Amino acid sequence: MSYPDPIYFGENGTTSATIRRGDSAPDLEYRSGGSVDYLATGASTGGQFGLYRWNFGTAVSGPDPHFHRTISESFFILSGTVRLHDGTGWTDCTAGDFAHVPAGGIHGFRNESGERASMLLMFSPGAPREEYFETLKKLGEGLTMTDEEKDAFYLAHDNYWL
């Protein structure tokens, strides 16, 4: 394996770093008590990756097993207990545990502990996942979709449920 082809050709570097403070307001807050911080979006990384901090509330929440055709996902547990599905079953993961799921890999994540938990969720390449999670919030608040609309929504956002 070698380094990829250069994508920056300047001589002196650029002033282009971004910092998001830990006490910044969340980008999304769910009725379940959870929240999401968009640390780096696909748009802000030029499509290279996306990175979110996923903060679970105390209510049971998280998706059932599914897969994506276009993106890989990685999970790093920051605090609490998060159950991760690896395609064969659910495993309780705690602070410091990591999982990588290649494109096509069956996975799911949830908090069933009754306690708060937090993890980093990274996907690559940097797909525009924000609309997906924002629409899920609206569905949780009463937005309705027909079965056909739900199918189209999940397909448009590369979610294939098992």
Describe the fold and architecture:
This protein is an alpha+beta fold and 162 residues long. It has helices at residues 130-140, 147-156; strands at residues 28-29, 35-40, 50-56, 66-67, 72-79, 81-85, 90-94, 98-101, 108-110, 117-124, 160-161. The strands form three sheets. The chain has a six-stranded antiparallel sheet, covered by helices on one side. Strands 7-6-9 form a three-stranded antiparallel sheet, with no helix packed on it. The longest helix is centred in the last third of the chain and has 11 residues, at 130-140. The N and C termini lie far apart (34 Å). Residues 64-122 form the Cupin type-2 domain. This is Cupin domain-containing protein.
Overview in brief:
The protein is built from 2 helices and 11 strands.
Mean of pLDDT? 97
The structural domain count equals: 1
Cα Rg: 17 Å
pLDDT < 50 stretches: none
Overall, the morphology is: globular
* CATH first level: Mainly Beta
CATH topology: Jelly Rolls
Strand order of the largest sheet: 1-2-3-10-5-8
Strand content: 25-35%
Secondary structure tally: strands: 11
CATH superfamily annotation: Jelly Rolls
Given the structure, what is the number of helices?
A: 2
- Shape-level CATH architecture: Sandwich
Largest sheet: 6 strands, antiparallel
User: In whole angstroms, how far apart are the ends?
Assistant: 34 Å
The string of secondary-structure elements, in order, is EEEEEEEEEEHHE
Structural class: alpha+beta
Domain Cupin type-2: 64-122
Organism: Nocardioides guangzhouensis
InterPro entries: Cupin_2, QDO-like, RmlC-like_jellyroll, RmlC_Cupin_sf
Protein name: Cupin domain-containing protein
